[in-house]
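Forum: Protein Structure Q&A
Topic: Joint prediction for protein chains with partners

I've read a bunch of threads here and the consensus seems to be that you should model interacting components together rather than docking separate models afterwards. I'd like to see that in practice. Below is the full input, 544 residues plus whatever partners are listed. Could one of the regulars post the assembled result?
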Amino acid sequence: MEQETRKKRLPILPGIIHEATSPGDKSYLIGSRCSACGRTFFPKRSVCRVCMRDDTMEETALSTRGKIDTFTVVHVAPIGFTAPYIQAFVDLPEGPRIFSLITGCEPSQDALEEGAEVELIIDKITEDEKGNDLIGYKFRPVGKGSRSKNEEKS
Amino acid sequence: MREVVVLGVGMHPFGRFLDKSLRDLAKVAIWDALKDANVPAKDVQVAYLGNSVGGLITGQEGIRAQTILGPCGFSGIPMVNVENACASASTAFRGVWLEIASGLCDVGLAVGVEKMFLEDRARTISALISVSQLELSKLGMQFAGEAAMRCKRYMRKYGGTKEDLALVAVKNSYNGSLNPYAYHRKAYTLEDVLSSSLIAEPLHLYMTSSIADGAAAAVLCSKDIAKRYTSKPLVTVAACVLKSGRYMDSDPLDTDVQSTITFTANEAYEQAGMEPKDIDVAEVHDAMSPIELVSCEDLGFCKKGEGIRFLKEGRTKITGDIPINTSGGLCARGHPIGATGIAQVAEIVWQLRGEAGPRQVANPKVGMCEDSGGVVEGDNAAFTNIILKR
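Posted by a regular:
Agreed with the consensus. Here's the joint model:
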């Protein structure tokens, strides 16, 4: 019985994260780089939409640090989320501007700045209808150090 | 390609109608459009029906056009189901335009209809979320928040305050107060807008479009036979363009990348042989009202970064030289997703014919409908631009 009701840890989306499994390993987001034009995309894909070729894409590990492009504090949450929370676009050094929730700081306008350096963490995003944890990625301000209560080891 | 005219338009008022079905809403819009066009229903040779979330709301998938249009009296003719987020109706309009312009048909019906209010509010919300890319929603994207971030980027680049952004809602709520088809018919003050609940900084409730039930329809025909039906001023389709988002890595506000609204409009201007200065009145897709400022710039009505000044000078008011969203736009008229595109067309047709009552713009000859819908990675999903001329 105990076994059956235990919450599982499931990926929120397939193929977006490499999650560290051993102490020497590091978690990262999986992107694709086009060997013809040099552009990097996230999530990974098999066709470069700039070159429109399907034979040039290579899987690549994206940097785990980026900078806040812009962010907002969401006060009306979608189902499965609890307001207030911060959502942002994060610019990665390889080029992609990616959507992410921000954790590790107060959900207020003053707690974060555009251009602030943020780092990747693997974290619970929400739960499915059975109560299983759905695991994805978030970013948190670098140097703030405070770990979110939901954060798993990364 | 043959010239195509919009012979007639009709709407079911936008609002909250718990006791009305998609069919009930569509029937009113369709038959009002037929009467306005003076076209017997039997003359309609083709129908395209735009609807975005009816599958999730009602459970009816696949054949909503047939199940809605059948009880409205139509059978046997080609019916096409169109689903293209907030641009569903304008995409349906384009389908009918293309059928007639190509010479395949002479008379056609374009319908947009949406039912969003249910007793089951959770279902409405999940339907609403469904027009954003699933992956983004799963990761926690709240799409008003996405627009909020666009507003912040705009202010970062061009300056302006939250009060400036709120002035769009003040203007459009006034316009909506004059529109009998609008859901919200109250003119808000700046204080009203800024004291409405905060959705995502800098967006407050009255700056966001609201879910609604509603329908809009247009009867189109080949220009060469139009005089058989009507003695009203003919409104010709000068351009009709559909594009998809370009999934940009960087925001056009940060770079010299052309926005997809501009990309779509430029083709429409070329098709019509016109320039931005030729447009006398426009309906733009202000799903969040401050986005109207960016759209004004992207459509070429003012220079980049001048949207706020343009608004403050009153240029976009009903009495201005390029009135924008005389209907009230999406925030005041309401936004039944799959009906909005043809509601824009209806407003422009009324304006061009001088039938817009207290919202009437002084003698417009050319009007534009700009529609963009759905959120995908890096862009909106569907874009349309329709130019109509008298």
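Residues 86 and 114 of chain A are 12 Å apart (CA to CA).
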